[in-house]
Amino acid sequence: TRTQVGIVGGGPAGLMLAHLLHVAGIESVVVETRSRREIEQTHRAGILERDSVRLLVESGASDRVLRDGHEHTGIDLRFGGVSHRIDFQTLVGASTWLYPQTEVFVDLADARSRDGGDVRFEVSGVSVLDVTTDRPGIRYTDAEGGEHEVRCDVVVGADGSRSTTRALVADRRQYFREYPFAWFGILCEAPPSASELVYARSEHGFALVSQRTESVQRMYFQCDPTTSADDWSEDRIWAQLQADLDGEDGFELRTGRILEKTVLPFRSFVCEPMRHGNLLLAGDAAHTVPPTGAKGLNLALADVRVLAEVLERAISRQDRTALEEYTPRALSRVWRAQHFSYWMTTMLHRSAEASDFDERRQLGELESVVGSESGSRYLAEAYTGWPEPTQS
Ligand code: DHB
């Protein structure tokens, strides 16, 4: 096969890019090792920034987000057993939307089918070839064992945090940070315990109350990274979550059957540059953030928004220098999001090594954030998403 852009990875980054390229009149082929069903059933984050929603709607990828998603005009930061509202609308005139990543994926996969997009699920043995030539390619084996080769102008590696394409960025530098905790995530059958998100810090650690539907809720609490989901009974989970949220206002979780339990790893990671010759990386393949603040999917969508624009100039207008803009433009947002995710994480979690000083300082930090408008505004601006700088 011959196409213009070969995309490794059919998650939200790869499919959104394929969609934006289609809108710009550029052909692509997407290869993905998982099945569509497997991706649809992998629960991930649920919060979209203002501009992620705008991109989904204005590009024609999803109108369902406005119908089935829920606008959130703020969050609660809860510590010392007291909730403090951070009102995004008042502070920065923006909202976020609760719309699960699995729904974003369904909309993008449907858009590719509707528009005749070429997405090949359940492939194996993917390798990327000749990225420093003007005819790079992707080789893979299909589900029936047939061998294929796709030749293109540009290859995009959107193959997630365990990316194999990343290794082809020969001169890359990688930045890491580990954290001494993880999240225990549950999906449960219960009515909502709060109308918007509650990010809580207690002497036991972090907890987050999120939602999915009227009858299914998503919640997380801080746990040891070595913990096994099987060690936690329903009773133990509810006791931990309720203890994290107890307070003088009598906040009470609405509990129910637990449908799914997962332990989520915590890591900050950036690969620089995000391009090598005619290979460009997008989303988790190039960077991962800890989940606090829900930046992962939003960063992936921001990457491909820049990438689609750069590829349009490189391919349709034959301006190959456009590719050089990609890394610096994408990284400027990536590092701001790295800082924000790190900051939200360290401000709200308890580390076993923390001293009494660290503890009191952390409460001082939270008081500074909720105690004044200027303290809250950074959180509101970063959480709802920085606007893309306009091109000069
Ligand atoms: C969700 C996940 C997050 O990491 C977060 O910060 C907010 C919400 C969620 O799954 O709903």
UniProtKB/TrEMBL annotation:
Pfam family, one: FAD_binding_3
Family matches, as InterPro entries: FAD-bd, FAD/NAD-bd_sf, PheA/TfdB_FAD_monoxygenase
Boundaries of every FAD-binding domain copy: 2-340
Keywords for the protein's UniProt record, in alphabetical order: NAD, Oxidoreductase
Entry-linked PANTHER family: 3-(3-HYDROXY-PHENYL)PROPIONATE/3-HYDROXYCINNAMIC ACID HYDROXYLASE, BLR0106 PROTEIN
Name under which the protein is recorded: 4-hydroxybenzoate 3-monooxygenase
Organism per entry: Nocardioides nanhaiensis
